Fold this protein.
Amino acid sequence: MKRVRVCIFILMAVVAVSFFSLCRVSSGGSSLSAGIDKALDEYRLTGSLPKTLTADLNAEWEGYRKSIAYAENTDDLNAISLLFCELENAADKDDFVKTCELIKTSLNLLWKNEKPCLSTVF
Amino acid sequence: MLIVFIRSVVLYFVVILSVRLMGKRQIGQLQPSELVVTILVSNIATLPVEDISIPMSMGIVPVLTLVSLDVIMSAVTLKSIRIRRAVSGTPKIIIENGSLKPELLQQLRFTADDLLEGLRSQGVFDLSQVEQAVVETTGSISVCLKKGSEPPTADDLGLKAETDPPPVLVMDSGRVLSSALKELGFDEIWLDRTLSKQKLRRDEVFMMTANRKGKIFLVRRGSR
């Protein structure tokens, strides 16, 4: 019976960690997407590339990446890291907007792949 | 490379923990559900080791989940006969009163060779000696021989047989297993006295067994 109790505890812990990672991916992704939207708005208003904001976004991404690395594929996370690097070094408007959209889509995909629904489970 | 090494070490302990969680029953005989879990665990555990882009949790979580579900399922099957039958199936009697049931053999997809092989593994080479044979849920065959084909027991021969208590390992590679000695009702003084009767010191003994009656068997170090 002790073994069964240990297994029930393990299952509960696994479910709890799964929900935690789901929430973490969702909240971190939303926060980053909002930050990117803010950077896009600032760029549209001022007409100059928001270097400080993109540097802050990059730092936020690094923290977020570390916190979800235990649950996400490293290749996917590396691809997003490269996009953030491109964002910081965007040369012109088109480049900046395109990279912003790519990051938002990648973050959205990260969340969609984590969310348990019919298409991701089966 | 170091990542692969660390992951291998971690997964080694996770798999050991998982097998221990499954319990002793797992090692000896595999029920259908346990066979599935064992195969899955061995496959899943290798994934994060082979591909370092896959996080460790993708190996640990499914392994622990499968093993936990298996243990919980086995606890549930203890309580419910219906679930036990659904998960493990039921034993099938393929030979009853000495006659084989070919239709059941076909139903189980057992060939005559499979049957004979199963019987041979039980030490039965002649089908006509079998009174009853059962295909267990693990796939193994249990055999009950006809009375005339069974070796005579002491009772059959009218002999008075005394049961000898089973021997227990009390010394292993020169080390005394005090708990085993205590269980038998002896102590280290008894052990030293017994060894001195054999003109032996502790470090000269490779292994020693004893039973409750004080009957010992020992193997000296370096003896062939």
Remarks:
- Chain B has a mean pLDDT of 85.
- Residues 168-220 of chain B form a domain with the CRO Repressor fold (CATH 3.30.240.20).
